[in-house]
């Protein structure tokens, strides 16, 4: 830099001009890109530049300013949103995709992934865009590699990575190494392993030149097929208790390759025999798939043999298989073949129809038996109710007769006699009305007026309900009726309360609360609407809190006619977008849990699990918009501390409900164990303890548990040997 007041040399002037040009270039570049506060940058450039701003720069600045106005709403939405901002980023990506600028699309995807690197769907969309639009090898493979590093549990990302490597001519050893990494990624479903194996086998198949009889690539393909079958049978089945490939799709593809590309029908038949031995012989579609393969690449003899076996083994659609066999013989068979096919199909269909008839009869008998049992239970309840009424009527008549007798014989005596001293416990400390009259007369007070009815309003209401005639439920109106249960027994005026609750669903025709014989509310009722749509809308009120308890609302279904009907509104299968959280404090509210969960995605619904009384159980289900957000929440929230409680978070996958061993009814004991007269009311032994002997001594196990020996557990105890008086005397002398 020249000294002040001195004239710069030509070299210094050249350096100074180049620096000024760089500054001009930086300003022009910045003004040509849509950035926030562009106006301030333009004013600064205008103030700094000694020369007027070029027209081209002004034109680019205005164009960038217009583009900024379009992007500004999305940028402001991102600034105001909370992490992870997935919905805002998705809207911004859709906007840029419509604009079509590859650089800006790549930029917005990278910004979104910087904050949502654990979202598999976002990686999948980005990689798909790169594969189809940019197709730059280094960029594409780098993005795929980052995707599987961040979301290794998603099989779709690994499959896209293998396809991208093959598409960009990566060497075979690198692709095989990447496939081995995928196998060790730890997928969450058995079917994921089937998909990754199928993708790798497709790649190996594309490498084979089938014009040659044998090659290194073909042998590698066959060994890979064999390894895949063995891997699913051992590794996957051991981990998930299923292979993930019940239809043997990998073996089917292997058989197709052998038959169509290698012309090796013998190997294809061996594979299909193996497929049928894995429980697929009862399905018609499996036999027809094998038949089509034989039809295309085999011979008529093996086609006929396959269809005869199919007729014998198929249990789901035997008619279809029989029709295919008859069609084959009609076109290509001899008269003997036709006769044999007709006879076989007729015998098989007759046997199938007989089995179906027996099954229908059995089902009808069971249904009739259930109806008879229901009728018997109904009749028994009616008889029991009638006997109670009769007993109550007899006791009332008896009490009335006693009162009349007391009035006749004790009237004169009661006029001059003071009340006798009452013992503690008689009448719970409340004097009879006659005694109360005498007592008040002694002290100069007037006797209280006798109330006309019960003093307690609840007793009064229950007394009035006893006289209300019972209305039986009309099953023909089940479609417009809902069943409401788990209500509080102490609910006052349940009919008015429920009419207020269900009035928003539609016009209520009738509400029938159910009361006991004493007139108390039993906690459930029937709500009948005028229209079926109103009843369907009422089901949405299920689990609504009413007086501190969750109200259950379910369709009105006759359990006697539909014994298998279950009302459970929530899924009992794997839901990848829903989380199951345990270990929550009982004081945790829905709002507090939502504050914790919404930091990892958009929460659609939260359900706190409670008991029938509405008390929390420390469990919750949280539903996100998609699988990606749920996966991210599991990684971030599992082991988190909420109000001094460490919570556990996992993908919702309820276990299969099975009847526990302890709840199964024990087998009835043999009658001879209890003697000829059966089991008595008391199990007291009449033999002195000193003379008792254990026929089978039992050993005391750890923790106080008693372990039976194999003999005692499987065989009934041996009958004790009869003893004489001399034997008893010897036992006493030994003492």
UniProtKB/TrEMBL annotation:
One example GO MF annotation: RNA binding
RNA-binding recorded as keyword: yes
Pfam families membership: HAT_PRP39_C (PF23241), LSM_int_assoc (PF16605), Lsm_interact (PF05391), RRM_1 (PF00076)
Organism domain of life: Eukaryota
Domain RRM: 480-558, 577-654
Keywords annotated in UniProt: mRNA processing, mRNA splicing, Nucleus, Repeat, RNA-binding
UniProt biased composition (Basic and acidic residues): 360-385, 447-469
SUPFAM superfamilies: RNA-binding domain, RBD (SSF54928), TPR-like (SSF48452)
Cell compartment(s), UniProt: Nucleus
Name of protein: SART3 protein
Species per Swiss-Prot/TrEMBL record: Xiphorhynchus elegans (elegant woodcreeper)
């Amino acid at each position: 830099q020249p000294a002040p007041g001195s004239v710069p040399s030509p070299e210094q002037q050249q350096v100074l001009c180049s620096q000024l040009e760089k500054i001009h270039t930086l300003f022009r570049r910045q003004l040509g890109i849509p950035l926030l506060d562009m106006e301030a940058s333009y004013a600064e450039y205008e103030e700094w530049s000694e020369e007027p701003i070029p027209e081209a720069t002004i034109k680019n600045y205005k164009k960038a300013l217009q583009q900024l106005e379009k992007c500004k709403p999305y940028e402001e939405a991102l600034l105001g949103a909370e992490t992870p901002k997935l919905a805002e980023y998705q809207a911004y990506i859709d906007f840029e995709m419509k604009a079509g600028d590859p650089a800006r699309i790549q930029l917005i995807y990278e910004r979104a992934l910087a904050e949502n690197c654990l979202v598999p769907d976002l990686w999948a969309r980005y990689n798909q865009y790169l594969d189809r639009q940019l197709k730059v090898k280094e960029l594409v493979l780098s993005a795929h590699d980052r995707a599987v590093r961040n979301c290794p549990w998603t099989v779709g990302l690994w499959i896209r990575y293998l396809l991208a490597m093959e598409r960009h001519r990566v060497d075979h050893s690198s692709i095989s190494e990447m496939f081995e990494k995928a196998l060790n990624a730890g997928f969450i479903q058995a079917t994921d392993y089937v998909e990754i194996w199928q993708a790798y086998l497709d790649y190996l198949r594309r490498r084979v030149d089938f014009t040659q009889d044998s090659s290194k690539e073909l042998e590698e393909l066959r060994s890979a097929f064999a390894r895949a079958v063995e891997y699913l049978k051992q590794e996957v089945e051991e981990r998930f208790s299923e292979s993930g490939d019940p239809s043997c799709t990998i073996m089917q593809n292997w058989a197709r390759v052998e038959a169509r590309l290698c012309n090796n029908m013998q190997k294809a038949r061996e594979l299909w025999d193996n497929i049928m031995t894995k429980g697929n012989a009862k399905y018609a579609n499996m036999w027809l798939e094998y038949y089509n393969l034989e039809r295309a690449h085999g011979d008529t003899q093996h086609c006929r043999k396959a269809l005869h076996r199919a007729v014998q083994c198929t249990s789901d659609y035997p008619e279809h298989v029989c029709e295919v066999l008859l069609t084959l013989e009609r076109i290509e068979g001899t008269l003997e073949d036709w006769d044999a096919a007709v006879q076989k199909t007729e015998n098989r269909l007759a046997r199938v129809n007989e089995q179906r008839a027996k099954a229908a009869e059995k089902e009808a008998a069971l249904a009739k038996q259930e109806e008879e049992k229901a009728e018997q239970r109904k009749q028994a309840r009616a008889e029991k109710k009638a006997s109670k009424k009769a007993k109550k009527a007899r006791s009332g008549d008896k009490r009335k007769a006693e009162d009349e007798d007391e009035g006749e014989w004790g009237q004169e005596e009661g006029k001059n006699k003071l009340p006798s001293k009452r013992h503690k416990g008689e009448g719970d400390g409340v004097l009879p009305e006659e005694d109360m009259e005498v007592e008040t007369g002694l002290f100069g007070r007037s006797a209280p007026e006798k109330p006309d009815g019960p003093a307690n309003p609840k007793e009064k209401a229950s007394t009035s309900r006893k006289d209300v005639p019972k209305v039986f439920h009309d099953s023909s109106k089940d479609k417009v009726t809902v069943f409401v249960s788990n209500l509080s027994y102490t609910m006052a005026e349940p009919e008015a309360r429920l009419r207020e609750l269900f009035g928003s669903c539609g016009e209520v025709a009738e509400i029938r609360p159910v009361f006991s014989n004493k007139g108390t509310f039993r906690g459930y009722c029937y709500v009948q609407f005028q229209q079926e749509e109103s009843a369907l809308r009422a089901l949405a009120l299920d689990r609504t809190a009413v007086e501190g308890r969750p109200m259950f609302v379910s369709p009105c279904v006759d359990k006697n006619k539909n014994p298998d009907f279950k009302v459970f509104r929530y899924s009992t299968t794997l839901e990848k977008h829903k989380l199951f959280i345990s270990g929550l404090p009982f004081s945790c509210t829905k709002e507090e849990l939502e504050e914790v969960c919404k930091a990892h995605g958009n929460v659609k619904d939260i359900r706190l699990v409670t008991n029938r009384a509405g008390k929390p159980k420390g469990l919750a289900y949280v539903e996100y918009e998609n699988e990606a957000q749920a996966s991210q929440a599991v990684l971030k929230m599992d082991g988190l501390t909420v109000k001094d409680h460490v919570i556990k978070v996992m993908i919702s996958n309820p276990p299969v409900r099975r009847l526990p061993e302890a709840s199964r009814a024990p087998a009835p004991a043999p009658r001879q164990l209890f003697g000829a007269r059966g089991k008595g009311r008391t199990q007291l032994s009449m033999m002195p303890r000193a003379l008792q002997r254990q026929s089978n001594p039992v050993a005391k196990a750890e923790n106080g548990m008693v372990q039976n020996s194999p003999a005692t557990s499987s065989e009934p105890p041996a009958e004790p040997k009869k003893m004489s008086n001399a034997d008893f005397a010897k036992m006493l002398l030994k003492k």
